[in-house]
Amino acid sequence: MSRWAITGTTGFIGPKLCRLVCDRGDEVVALTRPGSSSSTTDLTGVRICPTDLLDVAAIRRAIRGCDVVVHLAAPRRLPGKSRGSAPGSRGFLVITEACRALLEAAAEVGASKFVLASSTSVYGRPWGEVTESSPLKPQSEYARARLTGERLSLSTGARVGVCVTIVRLSGVYGPGSIPLRPLLAKVTAGGFRVVGDGRQIHQTIHVEDAARALDASGRGGRTSSETVLVSGARSSLREWLDEMATAAGVSVRYTPWLGLPARLALRGVPGLIGSRRLASLDYQLRPRAYAIEHSLELFGNYHQVSLGDAMAELVGERHAALP
Ligand SMILES: NC(=O)c1ccc[n+]([C@@H]2O[C@H](COP(=O)([O-])OP(=O)(O)OC[C@H]3O[C@@H](n4cnc5c(N)ncnc54)[C@H](OP(=O)(O)O)[C@@H]3O)[C@@H](O)[C@H]2O)c1
């Protein structure tokens, strides 16, 4: 049996990861935000330990006896808003300095592994397929903070002798996803119109599969630090939205003739920050394609949720929430 310390356990992915680890018979210590009003009812069997993630001594006390530390905590993302990650802000420090604090405490208690949930946002907005070695071009405060946190983790891990795995997650979806709500509402209302034909790759990962990949990254006998891309099976945006619409008994309309001019216009825009309309256009036109062969090799096949089942569940959850 091993003992895991996990941050961000009250978020979207955290409870799923805690469940996987506990169901296997391993122990979980949840480092929750002191004063957090988030519910911990999903965390049955987990030891809750409110801990300041910048306080090495407090972390050391909380994670004594742990073998693995997984850092999921990050400022929350709400629909239409960017994550608060301005340099020097609390959100920034949780993504950056907390990595150093967690790793130093991990080394002091003899934990051998540190997993950081990072994000494909570090690649910016490429039009082609992304691999682990694609150029890094973070274009938001959040993405820049992410990259700083990754680098800090790798350098601190090397200094204190803890193996670091950076897991760069693509967009994660599933029941309970707050950022997905506006799109879900529009599609399930029927008649949603997409700019372009929606045939570009749109690779996202179901929250249960993301938790499975994170779980696998904390297990196994790896001893060298590395960075891994994690996403779901490939589908096009059209397949993705059509599955959602079908589950709701409606359809989506595509406008292929608008695709090329809109794509050309979008390519001329240097950044999307602050513009909700441009961000929505970007979502409808830009491919999201990730080479995930390395993670499948390392972690085994972590894809277990089919797109059809996932969309049926999402739409069911939305219908249940309607008055
Ligand atoms: N979801 C995605 O699509 C996605 C994609 C790529 C990467 N990721 C990364 O994966 C990780 C988990 O994502 P998620 O979607 O599960 O996140 P989430 O739902 O936004 O939850 C964030 C978690 O971090 C905690 N947190 C925030 N500020 C904190 C602080 N100052 N001290 C301690 N804990 C704090 C929150 O606690 P409270 O409940 O107290 O607020 C919550 O448990 C994050 O690092 C995220 O950036 C997510």
In words, what does this structure look like?
There is one protein chain. The chain has helices spanning about 15-25, 55-65, 90-95, 95-110, 140-160, 180-190, 205-220, 235-250, 260-265, 275-285, 295-300, 305-320, and strands spanning about 5, 25-30, 45-50, 70, 115-120, 165-170, 170-175, 190-195, 205, 225-230, 250-255. It is of the alpha/beta class and about 325 residues long. The chain has a domain at about 5-170 and about 205-230: NAD(P)-binding Rossmann-like Domain (Rossmann fold, 3-Layer(aba) Sandwich), CATH 3.40.50.720. Strands 3-2-1-4-5-6-10 form a 7-stranded parallel sheet, with helices on both faces. It has a two-stranded parallel sheet with strand order 7-9. Strands 8-11 form a two-stranded parallel ribbon. Helix 1 links the parallel strand 1 and strand 2. Helix 1 (about 15-25) crosses helix 7 (about 205-220), helix 4 runs parallel beside helix 5 (about 140-160) and helix 9 packs across helix 10 (about 275-285). The radius of gyration is 20 Å and the shape is globular. The termini are far apart. The mean pLDDT is about 95. Bound molecules: NADP nicotinamide-adenine-dinucleotide phosphate. The site of NADP nicotinamide-adenine-dinucleotide phosphate has 25 residues, from helix 3 and strand 5.
